[in-house]
């Protein structure tokens, strides 16, 4: 028996593909998650657009995984993939992220779910986590600090964050 992902009223459902008729009468096995509202309707992409999207998302996934110091093996264990090839193919852009796993990927990569969903589906061209955190554009001094911070090792980044919290009053 084959299964498919279907949407109804903003929710994703994992359903029996032989189900006929309206989805609310379908025998759906499991409600997966609420889909975020998108600002523009999702349109089918042409082959070059899909390839560009896969490469853009794959590059972000690899960069974020490396930033978090996770190995492909860590991703495999967290997400339940059978082989390392799946993760490698996603990172190189040979495969796209499966729609049913986008939220799980967001969780592992520690990024905002809705922003990552919009990015992975092509509704947003960039994965900008500042937008979700309510942070506006950076001035020149802030940009310089971010560049210095990114050049530090993860250990030193943690020490700097602790020091900044101490300077701020321990909040």
Structure, described:
This protein is mainly α and 171 residues long. It folds into three domains: 3-34, no CATH class; 47-133, 434 Repressor (Amino-terminal Domain) (Orthogonal Bundle), CATH 1.10.260.40; 138-171. 50% of the residues lie in helices and 11% in strands. The protein has helices at residues 47-67, 72-79, 84-92, 102-109, 113-120, 129-133, 140-151, 154-168, and strands at residues 3-8, 11-16, 28-34. The protein has a three-stranded antiparallel β-sheet, with no helix packed on it. The radius of gyration is 19 Å and the shape is globular. Mean pLDDT is 76; it is low at 22-26 and 29-35.
- Helix percent reads 40-55%
What would the CATH topology of the largest domain be?
434 Repressor (Amino-terminal Domain)
Report the average pLDDT across residues: 76
Count structural domains: 3
Give the oligomeric state.
single chain
Identify the strand order in the major beta sheet: 1-2-3
> Which second-level CATH architecture of the largest domain applies?
Orthogonal Bundle
Secondary structure tally: strands: 3
Taking all Cα atoms into account, the compactness measure Rg is 19 Å
Q: Write the element-wise H/E pattern from the N-terminal end onward.
A: EEEHHHHHHHH
Anisotropy-based shape: globular
Largest sheet: 3 strands, antiparallel
Q: CATH superfamily assignment of the largest domain?
A: lambda repressor-like DNA-binding domains
- Strand content of the residues, in percent? 5-15%
- The chain-level structural class is mainly alpha
Q: Span from first to last CA?
A: 54 Å
CATH class of the largest domain: Mainly Alpha
Uncertain residue segments: 22-26, 29-35
* Number of contiguous helices: 8
């Amino acid at each position: 028996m084959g299964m498919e992902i279907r949407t109804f009223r903003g929710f994703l459902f994992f359903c029996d593909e032989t189900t006929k008729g309206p989805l609310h009468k379908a025998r759906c096995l499991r409600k997966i998650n609420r889909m975020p509202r998108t600002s523009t309707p999702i349109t089918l992409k042409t082959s070059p657009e899909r390839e560009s999207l896969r490469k853009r998302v794959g590059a972000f996934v690899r960069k974020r995984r490396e930033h978090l110091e996770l190995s492909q093996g860590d991703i495999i264990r967290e997400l339940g993939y059978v082989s390392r090839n799946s993760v490698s193919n996603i990172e190189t852009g040979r495969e796209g992220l499966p729609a049913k796993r986008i939220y799980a990927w967001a969780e592992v990569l520690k990024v905002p779910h809705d922003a990552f969903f919009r990015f992975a589906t092509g509704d947003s061209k960039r994965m900008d986590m500042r937008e979700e955190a309510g942070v506006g554009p950076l001035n020149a001094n802030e940009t310089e600090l971010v560049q210095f911070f990114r050049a530090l090792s993860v250990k030193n980044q943690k020490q700097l964050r602790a020091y900044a919290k101490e300077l701020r009053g321990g909040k």
